[in-house]
Specification:
alpha/beta, 8-stranded mixed beta sheet, 19 strands, 23% helix, EC 1.2.1.-, NAD binding, oxidoreductase activity, acting on the aldehyde or oxo group of donors, NAD or NADP as acceptor
């Protein structure tokens, strides 16, 4: 079975690394869309080395080393990587013009970040995710959340957002052709929210908020730059290396697509970019309605929920850590969508005073008949920390698992 990868940015390159290592596909076809350097030898050097994760040889062979790339043929655009034949396409950038069909590619992972709207028709001259289908692919995975530009349009019936291990069972191979793997932050957050929802139920989660302390990405500026015409967020053009930059995240919206119950909760999501190359952190705050009697919601109880989840249903992707971690410890961490920093879990319980006379929707007649005008409701605020490698260890790993899941049902 052949896999197609569109784009050789951070996620595209690491997706290639992962599937080369796992050898889950017989052949890989990568669309770069242009010439690279002086030829395929230069592209091979880009693949061999990585400033964050070291060398491909170390990743594949450890301290023993070795040469993973052989049989480079610049004219044919081919090479062998760890024994896997890889073909590089260097001409088309519009998805509809990429010759997937000619190369027998049925499954494509689009890692460009340029084509994220599932409603754009395949023949759009600016390019579209659906163009891959017109070019011969049967299924397309997107390494980013869907973003529908025209707010009057709804999500197409053949498109779905999936996080492996959370809602991948909702993927229907007879219906879905476009599959978003959400974002790195949504992936981490889903493994933090799902155990709490399963334990407490949506009714007892009064509200939730999250902040992601996120590593820098290639969308940011190395040095200060002049914003484009019409830009409203001037901070995006400030230097990434020496600034903490406030920005936005669509993680809460995307999470509701993966876990629909979240839409019933008041949920806010914020993002702060910091000058590190990878390794990010979600700080999740939940306001939970406590029970007047029964077990209290304390640090031990919250950690027990995550410990049990990490040993049970979510053991393949959720790690419960009792160590004292820093962000570099998470870089390259294998098979972990989320690493719970259990030492930092904390809770506070207090009574929230609810004035019934101020509740909306109650008529003055009903308010006049109230025997009690104030309720004291016990509310626990729980704060949970979850690490994730926003590039390789968490996101690319989860994307790769979803790719294999879709591929196994394709043939």
């Amino acid at each position: 079975m052949k896999l197609g990868i569109n784009g050789m940015g951070r996620i595209g390159k690491l997706t290639l690394w992962q599937h080369i290592a796992k050898q889950s596909f017989d052949e890989i076809v990568v669309n770069v869309g242009r010439d690279v350097g002086r030829g395929l030898e230069d592209l091979a050097q880009v693949i061999r080395k990585d400033s964050t994760y070291g060398s491909l040889a170390s990743y594949l062979y450890g301290f023993r080393g070795g040469e993973p790339i052989t049989a480079i043929d610049n004219d044919a655009g081919t090479m062998l990587i760890h024994g896997v034949p890889v073909t590089f396409l260097r001409r088309a950038r519009n998805p509809k013009d990429i010759p997937w069909g000619e190369h027998g590619v049925g499954l494509v992972v689009d890692c460009t970040g340029a084509f994220v709207d599932p409603t754009v028709p395949a023949d759009d001259p600016r390019g579209a995710l659906r163009g891959h289908l017109e070019a011969g692919a049967e299924k397309v995975l997107l390494s980013a959340p869907f973003k529908i530009k025209n707010k009057e349009l709804s999500m197409p019936e053949d498109a779905i957002t999936c996080v492996m291990g959370i809602n991948n069972e909702q993927y229907d191979p007879s219906q879905h052709r476009l599959i978003s793997a959400a974002s790195c932050t949504t992936t981490c957050l889903s493994y933090m929210m799902k155990p709490m929802l399963e334990h407490f139920g949506v009714q007892r989660i009064l509200s939730a908020s999250m902040v992601t302390i996120h590593a820098a990405t290639s969308s940011q500026m190395v040095l200060d730059a002049v914003p484009k015409a019409g830009a409203t967020d001037l901070r995006k053009n400030r230097a990434v290396m020496n600034n903490i930059i406030l920005t936005t995240t669509g993680a809460a919206k995307a999470l509701a697509e993966v876990i629909p119950q979240v839409a019933e909760i008041g949920f806010m999501a914020e993002s702060v970019r910091i000058p590190t190359n990878s390794g990010s952190l979600v700080i999740l705050t939940l306001n939970l309605q406590s029970e007047a009697e029964g077990e209290p919601i304390n640090r031990q109880a919250v950690n027990a929920i995550y410990r049990e989840a990490s040993q049970g249903l979510y053991r393949d992707h959720l790690v419960f850590s009792e160590a004292q971690n820093v962000s570099s410890d998470i870089i390259g961490f294998p098979k972990a969508a989320t690493v719970i920093e259990s030492r930092e879990t904390h809770t506070r319980t207090a009574y929230s005073h609810v004035d019934l006379s101020r509740l909306p929707g109650l008529s003055s007649e009903i308010k006049a008949q109230l025997q009690v005008t104030r309720l004291d409701v016990p509310v626990t605020q729980a704060v949970v920390y979850g690490w994730y490698d926003n590039e390789f260890g968490s996101y690319t790993n989860m994307l790769g698992n979803l790719t294999e899941h879709v591929g196994q049902q394709l043939f």
